[in-house]
Amino acid sequence: MAKATYIAIVSSPGYTHLVPIIEFSKRLINHRPNFHVTCIVPSLGPPPESSKAYLQTLPSNIDTILLPPVNKDQLPQGVHPVFLIQVTTMRSLPSIHEVLKSLCSKAPLTALVVDVFAYKAAEFAKEFNALSYFYFPSSAMTLSLLIHGPNLDKEVSGEFKDLTEPIKFPGCVPFMGVDLPDPAQNRSSEIYKHFLERAKAIGTADGIVINTFLEMEPGAIRALEEFGNGKIRLYPVGPITQKGSRNEVDESDKCLRWLDKQPPCSVLYVSFGSGGTLSQQQINELAWGLELSGQRFLWVLRAPNNSASAAYLQAAKEDPLQFLPSRFLERTKEKGLVVPSWAPQVQILSHNSVGGFLTHCGWNSTLESVQEGVPLITWPLFAEQRMNAVMLTDGLNVALRPKFNEDGIAEKEEIAKVIKCLMEEEEGAGMRERMRNLKYCAANALKDGSSTRTLSQLANHWESLSEI
Ligand code: UDP
Q1: Is the ipTM here above 0.90?
Q2: pLDDT digits (tens, 9 = 90+) for 129-149
Q3: 137 CA distance to ligand 1 centroid (A)?
Q4: Which member of 36, 80, 97, 115 is catalytic?
Q5: This prediction's pTM
Q6: What are the tens digits of pLDDT across the range 207-216?
Q7: Can you say whether the dihedral through the CA atoms of 48, 199, 455, 375 is positive or negative?
Q8: Facing residues of 297 across strands?
Q9: Which family, according to UniProt (predicted)?
């Protein structure tokens, strides 16, 4: 029996940062049962039921340690969720250090893997004689932004959104400054400073584990590997996604039972991630657009908010269905189903009645759709979602992006047009075909292809160190 290898992982708060890093741990353990992973989880408050239920399903060689929540009253109010996540991980540093100290007093630690928002924790690795790694839960294109961010900062004066020429990183599809993530949209802000610090820190680790795969982003991955003569050791191990373990029994029954009654490939699934919200005006236009398109739809609706990321860390309590246009549900009852706030997305995407996904382009949703071969309509809201949308439309050609008017609203006619195009027309069929090809590549990468070989390499390296 091989000697045990001990790995510590630090996540950042938020369901969609916690799950991918733990799913990575599960894959690692499946690959090497002699590994033992301790996952350290900073938190803003008591974990939501969804996270608690999820953490209870872990195998015995993954331990989770929930850190004491940071004092909410001492956190800035009304700020961007990225800032809250960043501040929470920063304030949790003393507790992270304590946990690492206690772990290392029992067994030597081989590697410390930290979520990108917990970048400061990577500095503890040296003290505990461990290697340091970042876990990057998004695309190689977004990682390119972090890697090239400090140079971009030096080269450009003024705001990026005012650039008239596209930004082009090696191996990536060009994109406009307005499509940069929120932290890069205001260069005098505090979150921009943190973004630059994260960018500088990420190049200093012993490696970066990234949730993407070679066949999806060959150009960006190869360019990153070549950057600075191999300065960066990149480990693309994706797509790593959840396998549908959420406990949403009622809605799950309802959605899946309804899907069972629809023809194959006929339903557009509409969802904006774990916390994306639309304004009331945009909810109306989307409802009318869905109706006008005449297509079948399954819409996960959240109560309106003028800030798109408002519900990301804190769900609204109102019943979202009351915000639909009058008699909408009655008029569309033959064609559509609207469910409040949450639905079992992974199971929905894998249902054969689903033929398209209108998504905010969060990276997990993107990968889940790729794994099921479902083509997309991109509707990015915040974070790096606009860059993901550019990659999916201009780069991979598996998605359509509706146009938004001067007030930032997608109007009903435009929405109906892109829905019909994706679901009924030849252009959409081409996208479906390319997505199916990508699905096949994703399955291969995980079976015995690129991502599994990469994970093996990394595991071998860690194992060899723990045997010294
Ligand atoms: N999700 C879900 N049901 C919902 C909404 C979201 O299961 O109704 C899951 C989805 O499958 C994905 C995650 O929540 O795994 C959303 O992650 P993503 O990175 O796409 O977006 P974020 O929530 O970070 O904006």
Answers
A1: yes
A2: 999 999 999 999 999 999 999
A3: 13
A4: 115
A5: 0.94
A6: 999 999 999 9
A7: positive
A8: 268, 336
A9: Belongs to the UDP-glycosyltransferase family.
